[in-house]
Known about the structure:
The complex is a heterodimer. By secondary structure, chain A is mainly alpha-helical. Chain A has two domains: 2-106; 131-185, no CATH class. Chain A contains seven helices and no strands. Chain A has helices at 2-21, 30-40, 46-57, 63-106, 110-137, 142-156, 162-185. Chain B has ten helices and no strands. Chain B is mainly alpha-helical. Chain B is 81% helix and 0% strand. Chain B folds into two domains: 1-112, no CATH class; 141-193, no CATH class. In chain B, helix 1 runs antiparallel to helix 4 (57-70), helix 1 (2-15) runs parallel beside helix 5 (74-102) and helix 9 (153-170) runs antiparallel to helix 10. Chains A and B meet through helix 1, helix 3, helix 4, helix 5 and helix 6 of A and helix 1, helix 2, helix 3, helix 4 and helix 5 of B.
Amino acid sequence: MKEKFRQLLALFWTFFKIGAFTFGGGYAMIPLIQRETVEKKHWITDDDTLEIFAIAESTPGPVAVNAATFVGYRTAGFWGSFFATLGVVLPSFLIILAISFILNEFQDFPVVQYAFNGIRAGVLALLIKALWTMYKKSPKGAAAYIVMGGSFVLTALLDVPVLAVIIGCAVFGLITSCIAERRHKA
Amino acid sequence: MIFLELFLTFFKIGLFTFGGGYAMLPLIQEEVLTRGWLEMADLINFIAVSESTPGPFAVNCATYIGSELGGAYGIIGSIFGAACATLGVVLPSFIVILIVAKCYDKFKENRIVKGCMSGLKPAVVGLIGSATVGIAATVFIPNGRTVTIFSEVQTYVSLAIFAVCTVLAFKKAHPILIVCLAAACGIACGYLL
Lengths: 186, 193
């Protein structure tokens, strides 16, 4: 009982640290999760981490939350996943809560408004970079380019709801992969 | 009831976004803007805040918007609103991963999952591209309150900052460095021009 409690506490604390020290979320966490859970704690193996990120990519939600839930479950069942997830989310929750109070106090100061006028242009640069990274990781080929262009045109120019496009593209991917498979067999 | 609406909206966002980083941006942008929860400029400001603080963008965003909207009911409302939105965005992944962890071997080689992902991955690229265009419009053609501060000079200033920051971003400069530099440029231009 005491052993179990200590393990849950260790899971919480490890993922709290991971949540507190990774900026930019998701993929920035991979090396840290590997060091903490594989090398230090031996909760999972190196192969497990590869699998975790493969799963995290094909399930909904932020990669960090997915990874925490998975490692927690592998290590200590349901409560393990509960405490690991709580740990990884809590730092951002507390920090952003504090920031939202501070931001409300200061956002009408001219200096803050000037700063954000500059920052918005910087954010656009960061998004362009993120877009490029996403493009490099995405599958290529005719079907993929149709989906890319199609989802862009539908949302940017035709105001189709994002959710409808997401579901439509998943179905499209399913159909094209079935057709490709059938051709491959024939 | 704003708290329930926060929970349900972020539950939907958490459930339907695949892949890390900014994959959630398109859906967050649509939900938050159409509900009038934030203005476009506020959302872009918050992306910078999220880049400069630890944690996933989606979680940060949920906490911030929850806190802002709950703030109408005082500090307790603010904390409760943040908790509702954050729980909403985290819960779908939590439940799905628990299920997957139980029947992992079936999931790994599942053709349906693989097929859907082959459509979702490029879709995210197109959707983020579309969200970026909307953000670019707000940055370069400022409207509403930004226009009273800067007028059209802002367009040229923004273009210059954007150009420098893009070069830095592709040279793998740290996002916090880029945010700080852009802030410094914004302040300097605000007082000098």
